[in-house]
Amino acid sequence: MRFLCLVIVDPARFEGLTAADHQAITADSLAYDDELKARGILVAAHALGEPQTATTIRARGDETFYTDGPFAELKEHVGGFILIDVRDRDEALAVASRIPMARYGAIEVREVRALR
């Protein structure tokens, strides 16, 4: 079963961190990705650009609307994702609970549903 682990970032948790702190967080995250890859359960993992670099698209009838910025104004935002392929939801939650970025926000776990 595939599960998407959305990395929810709280920017306030990063205030006051040094460049070395940021490097350590990145190193921890990449090491965990490597562990998941070695276990054969990592499908993909990527960080996302900052919310202000987003463009939101809405299609209504024959019109398409483009809005610079994220879909919603929130304190927290999606900062990345990890897609895993595991036995069941319990294993997905166990994997997600160890994602280092959980210390700086939250991890939202959702089952990926195949449409075909």
Description of the structure:
With 116 residues, this protein is an alpha+beta fold. The protein has one domain (2-111): 2-Layer Sandwich (Alpha-Beta Plaits). It is 25% helix and 36% strand. It is built from 2 helices and 6 strands. It has helices at 19-38, 89-97; strands at 2-9, 42-47, 55-60, 63-68, 77-85, 105-111. A 4-stranded antiparallel β-sheet has the order 2-5-1-6, covered by helices on one side. Strands 3-4 form a two-stranded antiparallel ribbon. The model has no long low-confidence stretch (mean pLDDT 93).
Summarize the structure.
By secondary structure, the protein is an alpha+beta fold. It has helices at residues 19-38, 89-97, and strands spanning 2-9, 42-47, 55-60, 63-68, 77-85, 105-111.
Cα-atom Rg, whole angstroms? 16 Å
CATH architecture: 2-Layer Sandwich
Give the full name of the CATH homologous superfamily: Dimeric alpha+beta barrel
Distance between the termini: 14 Å
- Percentage of residues in strands: 35-45%
| Integer count of domains | 1
Give unreliable regions as ranges.
none
Secondary-structure-derived class = alpha+beta
Note the total helix count: 2
Mean pLDDT, as a whole number?
A: 93
Helix proportion range: 25-40%
Number of strands: 6
Side-by-side strand order of the widest sheet: 2-5-1-6
Order of helices and strands: EHEEEEHE
CATH class: Alpha Beta
Principal-axis shape: flat
CATH topology name, in short, is Alpha-Beta Plaits
> Main β-sheet: number of strands, strand sense, barrel status?
4 strands, antiparallel
